[in-house]
Write a structure and sequence with these properties.
Elements lengths: L3 H13 L6 H12 L4 H51 L5 E3 L8 H4 L10 E8 H11 L3 E4 L2 H4 L2 E7 L4 H8 L7 E4 L2 E4 L1
Parallel strand pairs: 1-2, 3-6
Antiparallel strand pairs: 2-4, 5-6
């Protein structure tokens, strides 16, 4: 059986120039039309022409979906990193307390209904006596000075107000000549 395209071409030629074809050729073409088409062969031709392009289209859709997913996850990750980075830079800077200054209470500066993040206080070249007074006042303790000589030592110390009192005392007691303790509601310098 001749292909469909071949038959169409023959019919066109026959319409344009009917004298070119003999009766025998016309009879052969008519017999070709009477034959039953091979459905399996026609389906295979159709599948070769169309299904491969459909598969290719599905493949491209999958690739596009994967790329969109990767871009969405990347965007979410970048946004999360920027939020964390921005939150780290928005932290309040440490308050530096020098010899002539003492730490200012946050409640003296801000109204009572303000939410306050505690901050670090940096004591730079400040006496132990002054450091202990500020820590005792912050924790609502009295101070008992039992060793005058140690109290006049000067230190560089970063006090994180989020640390509990025991942690602060342990950090200060790491200095050689310092011995602080809390007893009976007092911060004692020995």
């Amino acid at each position: 059986m001749k292909t469909n395209d071949h038959n169409k071409q023959l019919y066109r030629d026959m319409l344009e120039a009917p004298d070119k074809y003999s009766d025998q050729e016309i009879e052969t073409m008519m017999d070709d039309l009477d034959q039953m088409p091979d459905v399996d062969e026609a389906w295979q031709q159709f599948a070769q022409q169309h299904i491969s392009s459909v598969r290719l289209m599905h493949t491209w859709r999958k690739v596009a979906a994967i790329l969109i997913g990767i871009l969405a996850i990347s965007g979410i990750t970048i946004a999360a990193v920027r939020i964390v980075h921005q939150a780290q830079h928005e932290e309040q800077p440490a308050v530096v307390v020098e010899e002539s200054q003492s730490a200012v209470s946050v409640s003296q500066v801000l109204p009572a209904d303000t939410i306050v993040r505690t901050e670090s206080v940096v004591f730079d070249n400040v006496t132990l006596d002054s450091i202990a007074k500020d820590i005792a006042a912050y924790h609502h303790l009295d101070m008992d000075l039992q060793n005058e000589q140690v109290s006049q030592l000067r230190f560089y110390f970063v006090w994180n107000r989020d640390d509990n009192l025991q942690e602060v005392i342990e950090k200060l007691n790491m200095f050689e000549q310092v011995n602080l303790a809390v007893e009976d509601g007092k911060l004692i310098i020995r």
